[in-house]
Amino acid sequence: MTITPTTSRLSRRHFAGLGAAGTAALLAACGRSEEDKSGSSAAAEPVAEGPATGSLTVWAMGAEGEALPELLKGFEEENPDVSIKVTPIPWDSAHDKFTSAIAAGTAPDVAQVGSTWMAEFVGLNALEPTPDLLETDDYFPGALDSVTVDDVVYGVPWYVETRLVFYRKDIAEQVGVTEPPTDWEGLFEMARALQGGPDGTWGIALQPGGDGSWQTVLPLCWSNGGDVVSEDGGEFTFETSQNEEALAYYQSYFTEGISDPSPAEGTTEQDFVSGAVPMFISGPWMMAAVEDLGGEGFADKYGVFVMPEKESSASFLGGANIGVFQSTKNRDGAWKLVEYLSRPEVQVEWFTQVTDLPALQSAWEDEAVSANEKFEAFRTQLQSAFAPPTIATWEQVAARFDAQIEQVCKQDLAPKDALATTQSEAQGIGTGGLTCPPSR
């Protein structure tokens, strides 16, 4: 087998997805009635036994796209009659590239798919349902939710990430904080206390609106018993007392002067290492970033802890999935490749290469993952981490929510008014429900 990577700008993005620009024309071209919404629920066809053969095209984003050929050497040994071409794609152009390819019928056989794109691509009838070849019982619940649309599983989770609170343990000890907080009030008071440390300027780095800020605010809504979409995905539920309380809590960090309403871009790691901002909320990739900057011994100076509770502890579940496109000419080979990437030992190998956290819970038993206690904290949080709504229009709705969060944080807009505007705009956008005829 020959694995041929094509060149592309290396760009690592640790969010679940991007804006949905460029899909409107495609969606408008093919209608889907309410009665047809569950039409994708037909059982997946079985996959033929035996080694994979033929050619396969694979798209993957950023660092994953660059590193994937090395991982696929094991698949090459098992399937010597397969030729694979891996194309790395920058995250910032990936969404539009996918939707253009779907419209043109030139989508790859297999691809990494941002978790917030799943419902949209299913609505375009672009992804295949997952066959019985792949078991799904071992995935983190939130990760499995991210590939489930209308009770049908499409593809599988590939890797996961969630967000924890990072804090400077050494500074916390200096100001008399000996244990991480467990509730909202405790987190607020800890941030205020650490702000008073020897080098403190701000207590905690929080995003004051803008692209992706919903990924921190929405978990607070979940923690408080709220949500933004009804259980059946049919209507938006931004305007609730639980969501208003959550957004007001987030706003308080800015109105009380604990978080910077105008932070300089790309300074989180530097400010954390210097002690100027000794707390932030982020994902596992920040471990390497702060340790590299802080130098030898810095790993012992900071800790991580799960998101504090209101009614419960909740966090955002991101990462990426792997899917097979309906337009594939090598369906059996494509699903065999997905099965290979879904083995626990292969996910552990992938973790050692690029530190993407395994989506399979059994893979976390391997010492390569479990030896670091900070990763164990991420594992704990993954049990109560949730994927964003699996509706086709979520990216568009999220952008409107981001804009209102910015008004709340920077302009002191009342959370109730922000949620009312978001609700109105979301209702205008709708939840989706358009699809194209089957491609084959």
From TrEMBL:
Signal sequence residues: none
Record keywords, A-Z: Signal, Transport
GO cellular component: ATP-binding cassette (ABC) transporter complex, substrate-binding subunit-containing
GO molecular function: maltose binding
UniProt-listed InterPro entries: SBP, TAT_signal
Coiled-coil positions: none
Pfam families linked: SBP_bac_1
GO biological-process terms attached to the record: maltodextrin transmembrane transport; maltose transport
Similarity comment: family membership: Belongs to the bacterial solute-binding protein 1 family.
Protein name: ABC transporter substrate-binding protein
Origin species: Brachybacterium alimentarium
